[in-house]
Amino acid sequence: MVRVRSRRAVGAFGAATLLVGLAGLIGLLGVGQAIAAPNPMTTMGDAAGSTGSGAGGSAAASTAAAGGITLKAGISSVASGKVAVLEFLPERASVAVGDPVTWTFPSTEPHSVTFVPAGAPQPRFQTDPSLAAPTPTTGPVTTSTFVNSGLLPTPTSEGVPTFTLTFGAPGTYSYFCILHPNMVGTLDVGATTEPQRAVTARGYDEGIRYVREGRAAQRALLAEAPVRTRNADGTTTWTVEMGTSTEHTEVYSYAPSPTTVRTGDTVTFVNDSAAPHTSSFGGKLVPLDPEAPTVKAPVPGPGPLRLVPDTYLNTGWLPPGKVPGAAPLAARSFSFVAGEPGRYEYVCVLHVPSGMAGSIRVRD
Ligand SMILES: [Cu+2]
Q1: pLDDT digits 0-9 by tens, 51-90
Q2: How far does residue 85's CA lie from ligand 1's centre (Å)?
Q3: Quick check: pTM over 0.85?
Q4: CATH topology assigned to domain 22-219
């Protein structure tokens, strides 16, 4: 399986305030309160991290009240310190034939819940963008059903979107996310539905483990000293990593970041992660749609580009490096030359909702 991790996300340009620590961790997972609450189901909608609860929350509650279970399709939050868990939580659960299974989509990163007929290949958003739209079912799911939630949340989603299915025949069903090949879940459909409390607790344990994994990778990345190379002309080239990846997470931090560079220095962004990223300068001039041609391609053209204030400058999508058959380093790198002094803010258009942003200060 090709382990390309691509991302598509649109959203408001959120403030990248980081609330690290245990409170952030619990806030991210949300399930701490869910476990403690008398009725876990009614709090599932609040277990949404930064996105808050909404219509989806009450939908999940009413669904669960009917005897089904509720799972999460990924978790992430700016409050978590820019770590996104790319897993279904819990990864495996049991449900009775006919009982509803509801997935909530509390992540700032979009995901899908997609079932294909047994033995059929898994389609990918990267090769079939039409999969972003849902393909609903007309009845209970069987092992020969194709059903796809589409990518959720969408750019216009309010609250926490949910997706509910029932199953018409016993069996072991595996499902996946069209964006994240590592994201695979299993449902054991049979005679009994396990208690929501057990499902929630297991999802919580898995989520905690994965967030810790991502946070450790993030700490290691942020602890690295700025990478610099002296050039023959006396300038310096600085290398900045665009995030990093672990088995279950993506970390949306630019690092190691030089605090200050001099006019004439070069800043080279390199993507060694498992997801595509951009470095896009220009503040309000940066388009919010990752799929826009002016986001996918370098603007105004191939690098190196000179940093100019109040100007849209864009690397285009730099492909991931931590995947089999990754693009060569040159194709995953993009350079800017520091222009006049000032502070230059940049974001990853794909991961703005996850707080992926940075800045470069240029002085003479
Ligand atoms: Cu990104």
Answers
A1: 333 333 333 344 444 589 999 999 986 666 689 999 999 9
A2: 14
A3: no
A4: Immunoglobulin-like (2.60.40)
